[in-house]
């Protein structure tokens, strides 16, 4: 995922971390320029570790913001030590999917990340029922632990490369429940201390150019779509009532071009004893025509069974031709009324637009 977000490896030094929290630690401390962390999986849902760091309920990461996203197709392998030859029904080891390549009777325990276990539940229910599963911080750590077991009775769910690095055999390939198993990653950076203007309004900070998720990529997409649209209309008769210089038409076309181009996220709490408080907050988005794409929640730690909400929606705080997002942020009702403890978490280019 990091390599897809930063494809030019000559310009970037990649620094691996053991846990998701360490990614946030490194970004907050300015030890790195950017961090990449998994946010959600198409099969197993939100990555709780990342959501917990974004919640920042202990004020550990006050300056971290989301500035990009990347999607990665995820394939899981069962890795371990082979105790028997390939099964007789396996004609091509490389093409066999979601079925064991060899007997798994010697496997007594399997290590992996909780997300990986959640994405491979069908395989475990079919072939490893009753085997002990042990959750660890990462799939690479799982491979290391399986390799360290001299008895060969431990296995790991991880990527094939992780197995190659520690000398494990592939016991089964592509054991994920769904072929379209995909994980979305967030690109994180530290918000500069000088990101507010003299009048207190937060300003956009600069991003490098030439990356799949940065501003120049958005400009390229808009230009390409505009050229395609112009070409499609060139052979069509113009309506006598259309008015080529109509400003409203131009504004509408620009708004349509920006539809789904960006996403943003905010977090907030609501007064839990006020009927309809959450509905009132969501109504602020509806009144401004902002399309919600996801809602998550975590305990707020303010009081038991009260929650911090995360809302992701289409639109950008920095590139907002109709003023919908800026109107939301500047709304007195939003800031001082129905939403409490609200925090802006970032705007970024939507990598799966339409």
From TrEMBL:
Keywords: Amino-acid biosynthesis, Aromatic amino acid biosynthesis, Lyase, Phenylalanine biosynthesis. Residues 224-251 are annotated as: Disordered. CDD domains: ACT_CM-PDT, PBP2_PDT_like. GO terms for cellular component: cytoplasm. The keyword Glycoprotein does not apply. Pathway: Amino-acid biosynthesis; L-phenylalanine biosynthesis; phenylpyruvate from prephenate: step 1/1. Residues 1-190 form the Prephenate dehydratase domain. PANTHER family: PREPHENATE DEHYDRATASE P PROTEIN (PTHR21022), PREPHENATE DEHYDRATASE-RELATED (PTHR21022:SF19). This is prephenate dehydratase. It comes from Sordaria brevicollis.
